[in-house]
Amino acid sequence: AQSVTQLDSQVPVFEEAPVELRCNYSSSVSVYLFWYVQYPNQGLQLLLKYLSGSTLVKGINGFEAEFNKSQTSFHLRKPSVHISDTAEYFCAVSKGDSSYKLIFGSGTRLLVRP
Amino acid sequence: NAGVTQTPKFQVLKTGQSMTLQCAQDMNHNSMYWYRQDPGMGLRLIYYSASEGTTDKGEVPNGYNVSRLNKREFSLRLESAAPSQTSVYFCASSEAAGANEKLFFGSGTQLSVL
After folding, report:
1. Residue A86, Cβ neighbours under 10 Å: how many?
2. Å from B10 to nearest chain A CA?
3. pLDDT in tens, A49-108
4. What is the pLDDT of residue A13?
5. Disulfide-capable partner of B71 in A3, A13, A57, B52 (CB 3.0 to 4.6 Å)?
6. Is B61 on the interface with A (CB under 8 A)?
7. How far apart are the first and last CA of chain B?
8. What is the pLDDT of residue A28?
9. What share of chain A is helix, strand, coil (3-state, %, to 5)?
10. Do B97 and A98 touch (CB under 8 A)?
């Protein structure tokens, strides 16, 4: 079965420091990959997605992610974080032909400190 | 810009009580979803509606029923609430049910069953 692993449940970082949130998935077939962000007391919103083509995907708010097929990873990065980036980040993988087969990881809470 | 609207935002139930969570979207989307979010587990799909007039079970449907009332509205019903259903519930929608679709989420309903 498809699975998504976010190894870090919480990542504390100081403001203006770089950050990487890790995501690994289990699949030997082509997949679509997503990162969603959930700000406090809000629903999830799409940060970026990889469908095909360039392995480096740029999203909103200065985030980017790199698809690495050989390592089955889709890590999220930002070179300089802001206090406002404090949120929970979910990696998700979709295999096959349907949006209802989307599998979410358990989430990583990014805590940005001044 | 309402997007996906869920009501209520908070609810406390006693074991055995019933209730309906309401969801409406104003983006003319064809597909709608109900997820539950539990600590450390990410989001799990309860039910979905790929298009108006259809509903199907997701990963964790037991104890729930749904109704796709029309293209805009998709409700989730708990017939006899149990403490295990204490969770945060999210409604989402997408333009279609393809694997590459972007999901739009409501702000959630926090449900406690005592």
Report:
1. 17
2. 11
3. 998 888 899 999 999 999 998 899 999 999 999 999 999 999 999 876 777 788 999 999
4. 97
5. B52
6. no
7. 35
8. 61
9. 10, 55, 40
10. yes
Whether residue A96 and residue B33 make contact (CB cut-off 8 A), yes or no, is: no
Residue contact A99–B105, C-beta within 8 A: no
Interface of A with B in 13-72 (CB under 8 A): 32, 36, 41-46, 49, 51
Which pLDDT tens digit goes with each residue over A17-42?
999 999 999 876 678 899 999 998 88
CA distances from B82 to A41, B16, B19, B87, B105 (A): 24, 6, 12, 11, 25
Bridge partners of A34? A49, A92
Task: Grade residue B54 by pLDDT with cuts at 50, 70 and 90.
Answer: very high
CA distance A40 to A13: 18
Chain A interface disruption, residue of B43, B88, B109, most A CBs within 10 A: B43
pLDDT at position B18 is: 96
CB pair distance less than 8 Å for B100 and A94: yes
> How close does chain B come to A15, measured CA to CA in Å?
25
CA distance B14 to A77: 43
